[in-house]
């Protein structure tokens, strides 16, 4: 089940970073398995990639908001 933006926004930055690492590890393992055997759910690779993008986007938004608020002071 894909991650929802609302769920991601409830996480801390450290939680988001750890989730990104977990998903990248899973993606790596699935890509390896896909090269040697057919996957049960080949669309899982796509959903993992999109989840990683969502997580990185929200992390980047937080970074930009923090720098913007620091510059405004």
Characterise this structure.
The protein is 81% helix and 0% strand. It has 73 residues and is mainly alpha-helical. It has one domain: Helix Hairpins, CATH 1.10.287.
CATH class: Mainly Alpha
Low-confidence segments: none
How many domain modules?
1
User: What's the N-to-C terminus distance?
Assistant: 41 Å
Looking at the structure, the CATH topology is Helix Hairpins
**What share of residues are in beta strands?**
under 5%
Could you estimate the helical fraction of the residues in percent? Answer: over 70%
Describe this protein with a few key phrases.
73 residues; mainly alpha; 0% strand; Helix Hairpins; single chain
Condensed summary:
81% of the residues lie in helices and 0% in strands. The protein has 73 residues and is an all-alpha fold.
